[in-house]
């Protein structure tokens, strides 16, 4: 029964056909904005790292006294660590919170392209796995886990622990879960779609993404164990382990999303206006003929076939 439900709601052929039929032809659309996807990858992947670096460096340079006393004001005054939990400087302390919000504002819009670009890319695969129920399920799940990861990141940033600790903690947990799910689904699709066989670099990235899932999941388990242990026992070792795992998790997140810089070296994204409806006969027969002609000229992974190939 579950397999039948998946097959009913996840129709790869329908999705792929729709996607291909939306590819515009040069004579019928006007490009308003076009860019390589690499600048988008830099903004989406590296801006959180830049924000993290600013938050940490500013705290150690201009807020040394606060770093030495912030934990003593809690229920664990015996902890003398000067490494703050990542949520303190990013979500509470000023001006770090303001600067971090600016980086997030610039970081989030490019992230929207991740789910769209990779989903379309994986849909165009001609791998032997593309007709299996689990591949269709992963295709269905991928844009959702990407979106939920982004939403949970926004909530962690906007709702700090002083405003509402329960919501902040739940958002942190959701962000960790969604990122690990995102990496897992993405890594499986990268392998199953045959993407890893495109080049030596793509093959290396497949192993990197698989390793990123293993390490991110390990860090998530470390945080899950050490945080409640630190709160219960006020162990400085447990606190340091948790804090370091937090920072490493953020770096893993940025490194994973930056891989699109290498996945799509020649892919462009753009904003265009399609004038097909005004310039051509739109009868059912004409639409079918145009769609069939267009699909014949689309190679796997969405690249247009070159003349003579």
Folded structure, characterized:
Residues 40-266 form the CWH43-like N-terminal domain. With 309 residues, the protein is mainly alpha-helical. It has one domain (36-266). The chain is built from 13 helices and two strands. A two-stranded antiparallel ribbon has the order 1-2. The longest helix has 34 residues, at 200-233. Mean pLDDT is 77; it is low at 1-26 and 297-306.
Outline of this structure?
The protein has helices at 2-9, 12-21, 37-62, 64-69, 87-91, 96-123, 133-158, 165-192, 200-233, 236-257, 260-263, 276-279, 284-296, and strands at residues 29-36, 268-274.
List the defining traits of the structure above.
globular; single chain; mainly alpha; 13 helices; two-stranded antiparallel sheet; disordered N terminus; 2 strands; 309 residues
């Amino acid at each position: 029964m579950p397999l039948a439900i998946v097959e009913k709601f996840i129709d790869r052929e329908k999705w792929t056909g729709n996607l291909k039929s939306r590819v515009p032809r040069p004579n019928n659309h006007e490009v308003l904005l076009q860019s390589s996807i690499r600048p988008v990858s830099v903004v989406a992947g590296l801006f959180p790292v830049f924000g993290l670096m600013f938050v940490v460096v500013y705290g150690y340079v201009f807020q040394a006294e606060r770093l030495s006393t912030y934990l003593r004001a809690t229920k664990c005054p015996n902890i003398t660590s000067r490494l703050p939990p990542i949520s303190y400087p990013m979500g509470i302390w000023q001006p770090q919170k303001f600067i971090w919000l600016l980086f997030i504002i610039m970081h989030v819009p490019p992230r929207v392209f991740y789910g769209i670009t990779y989903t379309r890319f994986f849909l165009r695969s001609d791998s032997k796995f593309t007709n299996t129920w689990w591949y269709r399920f992963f295709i269905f799940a991928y844009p959702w886990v990407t979106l939920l990861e982004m939403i949970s990141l926004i909530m962690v940033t906007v709702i700090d622990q002083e405003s509402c600790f329960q919501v902040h903690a739940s958002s942190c947990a959701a962000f960790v879960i969604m990122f690990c799910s995102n990496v897992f689904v993405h890594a499986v699709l990268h392998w199953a779609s045959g993407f890893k066989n495109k080049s030596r670099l793509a093959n290396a990235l497949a192993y990197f993404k698989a390793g990123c899932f293993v390490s991110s999941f390990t860090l998530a388990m470390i945080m899950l164990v050490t945080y409640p242990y630190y709160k219960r026992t006020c162990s400085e070792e447990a606190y340091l382990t948790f804090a370091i795992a937090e920072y490493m998790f953020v770096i893993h997140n940025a490194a994973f999303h930056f891989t699109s810089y290498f996945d799509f070296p020649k892919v462009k994204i753009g904003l265009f206006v399609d004038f097909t409806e005004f310039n051509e006969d739109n009868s059912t027969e004409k639409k079918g003929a145009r769609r069939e002609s267009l699909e014949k000229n689309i190679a796997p992974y969405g690249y247009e076939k070159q003349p003579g190939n």
